[in-house]
Design a protein that fits this description.
With 281 residues, the protein is of the alpha+beta class. The chain folds into two domains: 14-178, di-copper center containing domain from catechol oxidase (Orthogonal Bundle); 197-269, no CATH class. The chain has helices at residues 14-27, 30-38, 49-67, 127-132, 134-147, 163-178, 205-215, 256-266; strands at 197-203, 220-230, 233-242. Helix 3 (49-67) packs across helix 6.
Length: 281
């Protein structure tokens, strides 16, 4: 779903999460707190500013992280409230208005999964309609209240470290809404003789891998392979031809680090890229 990695994923170590938490707490100032506290239109169900306002709020933090050389945390990782808040992200910036809530959030395990209605974003014709959805707003509010401490008070909630990954999760729902709807394709074909071939589109990662596993032993190799997202789900286009070729390999779903690792290991062996594409996964 969306473009952001989960902060609880293996992509981030405890040390990474601690570094991010420290950067967030250093970023939160009285001016940051007041910007959120005074942005009343952000907190009204049915207002598109619920999404756009918080998106811009997060973007300012992301710009600060990038300026500090912490670009690996951009886009800001998200936290799923169905999971426990990592220990490193439970702190609260002790600004004067937040001191009474204590130095940590109250409940790190809210156990509040995303409402099922949000898995079908096509039903919301506008951002205002999505923002007005009662299930979304109840869930959003319940997460704040159940986590407790500074998170339960709109005037100081940004002082809680987890506020930011939580709203990154909300922002990913908005991102999926912006890119909702059926996929569209470009196709160019020409008539000429050539080797045996086949083409597939709309493949899940499992179907994509299955075609590889079945076809490579028969002498097929990919000539077109692209990944894309449809309503938050990975999909692939694959065209393979049956022809003799030099040694080759293919990988998909790579992180930036894995992509670079394959380059570093393969180029000295005489390999060169023939297909390379980036997409949000």
């Amino acid at each position: 779903m969306g473009k952001r990695q989960l902060i609880t994923s293996t992509a981030f170590s405890a040390a990474d999460r601690q570094q991010l938490a420290t950067a967030i707490l250093n970023y939160v100032t009285e001016a940051v707190r007041l910007e959120h506290a005074n942005a009343h239109e952000w907190h009204h169900p049915g207002s598109p500013a619920f999404f756009d306002g918080h998106r811009q709020f997060i973007a300012k933090l992301e710009a600060a992280l990038a300026a500090q050389g912490l670009g690996r945390f951009v886009p800001l990782p998200k936290w799923d409230p169905a999971t426990t808040i990592p220990t490193e992200l439970r702190g609260v910036k002790q600004l004067p208005e937040a001191v009474k809530f204590g130095p940590q959030i109250a409940n790190p395990s809210p156990n509040l999964p995303m409402p099922s209605v949000l898995t079908n974003l096509d039903q919301f014709p506008t951002a205002a309609a999505l923002s007005a959805n009662q299930d979304l707003q109840n869930w959003h509010g319940n997460v704040h209240v159940t986590v407790g401490g500074a998170m339960r008070d709109v005037t100081v909630s940004p002082c809680a470290t987890i506020f930011w990954p939580w709203h990154a999760f909300i922002d990913d729902i908005y991102e999926d809404w912006l890119h909702r709807g059926p996929e569209r394709y470009i196709l160019v074909m020409e008539q000429h003789t050539g080797p045996a071939w086949f083409a597939r589109h709309g493949l899940t990662p499992q179907q994509y891998q299955q075609h590889f596993d079945e076809s490579v032993p028969k002498g097929y190799r990919p000539v077109i392979a692209e990944g894309y997202m449809v309503n938050g789900q990975e999909r692939y286009i694959l065209v393979m031809e049956q022809r003799p070729e030099p040694a080759w390999f293919a990988r998909h779903g790579l992180t930036s680090q894995q992509y670079q690792q394959h380059f570093d290991e393969s180029v000295p062996k005489g390999y060169r890229p023939v297909i390379a594409q980036a997409y949000r996964g």
